[in-house]
């Protein structure tokens, strides 16, 4: 086994370990951290596949944004003794095994039977993606900024308290 | 690599000129909301109204042209123009309806109108999308603005619940849509709608790209959510009930029209090779949507909820024209969407005007005796309900007539029969409101009605539309037929 393969196997083990921990752990917050481990491992897989851009996006979006979001959600969910009782590790294991088997069969069949179009060879580098955004897709790029305007506006409206002060009673 | 070329102030900008007008007004209204103080903030509504009028102007140069702009990201053709006009009319009526409604409910003004304008621009981008990326971004701009608008009445728990429900489920639906687009891209290697069609037409696609079928299914789930097709409709009643009434009208007409525009574009431009597969699927969806919407609407005690289920049922009727998939069928879809916009906004406008601050008065019992307390509003409501039920000489009748006759001509007799049976069932719950308005004693001490000149104008325009499309539909149908000749 070459060094690259060893690294690959290690990354795969990290991903699998994180997934197992996320499903089997009894505490929600531990489950979140295990999930983040898996996400980070997948970022490693992208680096192994020579797609640094995807790896960066994976780390930025899943470890950064989604991770923070999940932790916030756990914080908002109230103390753990008030949560409904969780299923035991045995049931969780059975459910996890079932889902993994099903997806394994699905992916295996898709990989076996689907003729994947192989794109033009060559490294997909960050600079090429940057060029594509500004040379070929600037319209989409502008639309995304519009989307951000809409999101910020919506967030401010729903999150920040009303400027008008408390509502006045209706005068008849 | 093909470089991106922009023809400044020329063809490219003409294709999105209407969106640009709406967007500049959205930002202007937002600023104005900060500059103006106190009660004068409501002038932002009039500015937004002016924006919608001004956005009609680029039509003058755009009618009759057909080309793709911005390197194939958007397309200007009669189909996109038809939907843009529909979206402008819907937006105009919604802002007109909102002018007094927002004052009454104490809603923040500048942001409200800015979001309505942004949502309209997103809808227009969907109608003019020639590329899956534009379609998705248009859909998201529209959806995010609508999520916020649904929850704008923050003191009202139901409004907040509506926003939250719509946002969470909508985010999942967007995920499905995006997954569908990704699988379509994975199997065809193209995101441009005409390129996808070209790839699928060349090869025996079922053996070379079986994944495109999964993509089709996921796309349908994503669109089905926005259209509130059964079984993706669960959110509709709660969200329609909780959102401000003006926004409910916007969701039921504008969002539906834009989603149908996107669905027509994707299915008829990009995926006609798969028609044999999606036709049967849509047949089932159409029947399930009509039937469930109508049956559940029978038991509703809240007029807003009843109209929500009725809007589900109407999406089912529109799908009937979609399943027929002939030129008449597609034209009938366009005609139906326009007719539906007038009658539905009209009905919601009456619902909005009968409410008061803190007392929406949307229960069926609250409508008892409205026929005597507010005779003019009650007559308008009766016309809109007759139109929704499909009684001649209203727009609703002609719309149903075209949709069902398209189904019969395409050989879908059972579909047409089920549709007509459904309309008969639906008549019951529309007539029930009228029975309450005219044959029940008013509840003691219940105050209804909030005078609104702008709301009355909106109702008058909607009434005009209902009768115009109902009595003289042929010119308009011809226009719809010309618009769908792009496929």
Describe this structure in words.
The complex is a heterodimer of chains A (about 170) and B (about 475). Chain A is an all-alpha fold and about 170 residues long. Chain A has a domain at about 1-55. Chain A is about 75% helix and about 0% strand. Chain A contains 6 helices and no strands. Chain A has helices spanning about 5-25, 30-50, 50-75, 90-115, 125-135, 140-160. In chain A, helix 1 packs antiparallel against helix 2 (about 30-50) and helix 5 crosses helix 6. The termini of chain A are far apart. Residues about 165-170 of chain A have low confidence and may be disordered. By secondary structure, chain B is mostly helical. Chain B is globular, with a radius of gyration of 22 Å. The longest helix of chain B is centred in the middle third of the chain and has 32 residues, at about 155-190. In chain B, strands 1-2 form a two-stranded antiparallel ribbon. Chain B contains 22 helices and 2 strands. In chain B, helix 5 (about 80-105) runs parallel beside helix 16 (about 325-355). Chain B has a domain at about 275-485. The model of chain B has no long low-confidence stretch (mean pLDDT about 90). In chain B, a hairpin with a 4-residue loop joins strand 1 (about 65-70) and strand 2 (about 75). Chain B has helices at about 10-15, 15-35, 45-55, 60, 80-105, 110-125, 130-150, 155-190, 195-200, 205-210, 210-225, 235-240, 245-270, 275-295, 305-325, 325-355, 370-375, 375-390, 395-410, 415-440, 455-470, 475-485, and strands at about 65-70, 75.
SSE blueprint and pairings:
The complex is a heterodimer of chains A (172) and B (487).
Chain A: H1 3-24, H2 28-48, H3 52-76, H4 89-113, H5 126-136, H6 138-159
Helix pairs in contact in A: 1-2, 2-3, 5-6
Chain B: H1 11-15, H2 17-35, H3 43-54, H4 59-62, E1 67-69, E2 74-76, H5 78-105, H6 109-127, H7 132-150, H8 157-188, H9 193-202, H10 205-208, H11 211-227, H12 236-242, H13 245-270, H14 275-297, H15 303-324, H16 327-354, H17 370-373, H18 375-389, H19 395-409, H20 413-439, H21 453-471, H22 474-483
Antiparallel strand pairs in B: 1-2
Helix pairs in contact in B: 2-3, 2-6, 3-5, 3-6, 5-6, 5-13, 5-16, 5-21, 5-22, 6-7, 6-13, 7-8, 7-13, 8-11, 8-12, 9-13, 11-13, 12-13, 12-15, 13-15, 13-16, 14-15, 14-20, 15-16, 15-19, 15-20, 16-18, 16-19, 16-21, 16-22, 18-20, 18-21, 19-20, 19-21
